Amino acid sequence: MGEARGCPSSLCPLEPQAEPLCGPGRVCVPGEVGCRCGCDTAAMAVLLRRLGLARLGINNNSGCRGLYQIDAKVLSAGLKTYEIPPRYDDVIIPEKPKLKFLNKVPNYKKPRRWMKRLGDIRGPATRANTLTRGEYGIVALGGGYLHWGHFEMMRLTINRQMDPKTMFARWRVNAPYKPITRKGLGQRMGGGKGAIDHYVTPVKYGRIIVEFGGRCAFEEVEPFLSQVAKKLPFPAKAVSKKTLEEMLKEDEQKARNNQNPWTFERIATMNMLGIRKVLSPFDLKYHGKFFGKSRVPNRV
Amino acid sequence: MAALCGRLLSCGGWFPPHQVVRHGSKAVTRHRKPMHILRQKLLAVTEYIPPKPAIPERCIKAPKKEVQEPSGFEKLLRREVEVTFNENKMITVFQNNSIKSEDLKLLRHRLLKHDIRMKFFPNQILRSYLGNTKYRNLLPLFIGRNIIIVSKEPKAKELLQTLRNTTQISLLGACIEDVLFSRQGVVNYSRLPGMQVVRGEIVSGLTLMTSQTCQLLQSGPVHLAALLEQYLKQQSEAATGLKGTESLEQKEIQGSPAS
What we know:
Protein name (chain B): Large ribosomal subunit protein uL10m
Strand order of the largest sheet of chain B: 2-3-1-4-5
Helix content of chain B: 40-55%
Radius of gyration of chain B: 53 Å
Number of helices of chain A: 6
Oligomer: heterodimer
Number of strands of chain B: 5
Largest interface: A-B, 57 and 50 residues
Strand content of chain B: 5-15%
Number of domains of chain A: 3
Structural class of chain A: alpha+beta
Helix content of chain A: 10-25%
Low-confidence stretches of chain B: none
Shape of chain A: flat
Number of helices of chain B: 11
Keywords (chain B): Ribonucleoprotein, Ribosomal protein
Strand content of chain A: 15-25%
GO cellular component, one term (chain A): mitochondrial large ribosomal subunit
CATH class of the domain at 72-191 in chain B: Alpha Beta
CATH class of the largest domain in chain A: Alpha Beta
Mean pLDDT of chain B: 86
Number of strands of chain A: 11
Order of helices and strands of chain A: HEEEEHEEEEHEHHHEE
Distance between the termini of chain A: 85 Å
Mean pLDDT of chain A: 83
Radius of gyration of chain A: 37 Å
Largest sheet of chain B: 5 strands, antiparallel
GO cellular component, one term (chain B): ribonucleoprotein complex
Family (chain B): Belongs to the universal ribosomal protein uL10 family.
């Protein structure tokens, strides 16, 4: 008894036809009336074969896929999925969003002359080194003094570039308070300490100078913040919370992954080879990461 | 320093073997201070060495195939596709060859009069959905630009008539009541008579023989009756005396085929 086999054209996945027209071993002629299956959108299949994109997959191993296998990648336009834009619902723009004016001279009742205290430049900053109020900011990557000219430059540039309705900026350094003395031109050594010339703010490595926040993305803010950062007397850069975190994490990771068995810390604390002759207690504390007012890069 | 030297000399002239004369700039300078050579060497020795595994990670780690979850919009479209394919009995796929939008609008209007809808779905979603259902053999149709025209009732004739004059849309294939058709197949399908007509035909064909039984059975006696009537008529005519021998002859001729 001849079993009623289905049409070999796998375009009809239905129950096998009882009609003898579509028997085994016979490829259906397109659009035959007796055959109920829509054999092979034949024109398209033939076209694809001619173009070399499809081939007769008779001896294929992949189950009953079909007589025609398309080899070329089907290029079809996909559906674009849009990223959800960030929401700034919790951001409050304060009154007076712009950077406030800082005085050139502090309000000392009796302005005393100070010692040089260069240690206020040396080493890493312990206070004001994280972004608290805003999302973005300028971080100092070296030590230095900021005087009133720098403050004015920063204030004017940032106030000009920012949009007070959607952004705000805040100082994270004090107005100049440290007096710097100068002797008159052409004076010889001696004769006491000079008179106060101007005031400065000392800044250490890692200190945040200006904080920026608001309903804005880092990409909007970064151009003018980095423009300001370039003009500062010490190396600085514009950062966001994420980038700052990444910097710290990278440092930590380096310290963990270091394959060098010899570390500065180890050699200095054990005073191997009498190296403490050329090192100072400062180096013992900061393990060679700082030299003078600058940070030595790539120090683990 | 001078006072110290003086005191030492007075002690007996002993100088410490190493005398470090440290002077020069302070720790924090404006210029870049030159580092002591030993410090430089120390920094060189204690540089960071990154970890280097024998087999780099990228040779072992299998590349992660990011499975992107379908967005809300995609899910919505998928649901619509499902509903369309479940509800409608006739699903036709047309190739969209840059038809003008105004022409498309008119076409849409004309089709709506017969309750035939035009649907547009992204190929990506269609292919992902249809690959797993019984319509997987329709997949080769959804490659280029296409329009899906669906209707709840299989109205192939109206569809083809409406689309007869539009050259920019061409029929690729159809799935009518779970049966796949090519273009010619749809044309043939549209030429089929309606269900009622077909049923009527079948019934009439089957009952053809039985309807004739009555007639067959009655044919003999009916014929006989007719002949006898004629005979009676002729008899009456003979009685009146008109055409006596001719009618007898006629009766004989009629009588022989009847017997």
